[in-house]
């Protein structure tokens, strides 16, 4: 599931700034959405392709 980060986040040892679009398994993505750290991605940003 692709999400857009609303807050900085570290995943698999890599730091991602707010606004990054990343792909995670559904459980992790839904957890980040539930705690307000991400939202479902609506489109890819140029630097995330």
Q: Count the strands?
A: 5
Radius of gyration: 10 Å
Between the first and last Cα atoms, what is the distance in angstroms?
Answer: 15 Å
Proportion of helical residues: 10-25%
Biggest sheet strand line-up: 4-1-5
Q: What's the story with the biggest beta sheet?
A: 3 strands, antiparallel
Unreliable spans: none
| Shape annotation | globular
Number of helices: 1
Helix and strand sequence = EEEEHE
What secondary-structure arrangement, pairings included, does this model have?
Blueprint: E1 2-5, E2 9-11, E3 14-16, E4 21-23, H1 26-34, E5 38-40
Antiparallel strand pairs: 1-4, 1-5, 2-3
Task: Describe the structure in your own words.
With about 50 residues, the chain is α+β, with helices and mostly antiparallel strands. The relative contact order is 0.34. The chain has one domain (about 1-49). It is built from 1 helix and 5 strands, in the order ββββαβ. The radius of gyration is 10 Å and the shape is globular. The protein has a 3-stranded antiparallel β-sheet with strand order 4-1-5, with helices on one face. It has a two-stranded antiparallel ribbon with strand order 2-3. The model has no long low-confidence stretch (mean pLDDT about 90). Helix content is about 20%, strand content about 35%. The two termini are about 15 Å apart.
What's a concise summary of this model?
This protein is an alpha+beta fold.
Keywords:
49 residues, alpha+beta
């Amino acid at each position: 599931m692709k999400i857009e980060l609303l807050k900085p986040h570290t995943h698999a040892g890599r730091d991602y700034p707010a606004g990054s679009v990343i792909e995670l398994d559904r459980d992790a993505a839904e957890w980040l959405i539930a705690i307000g750290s991400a939202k479902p991605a609506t489109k890819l940003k140029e630097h995330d392709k």
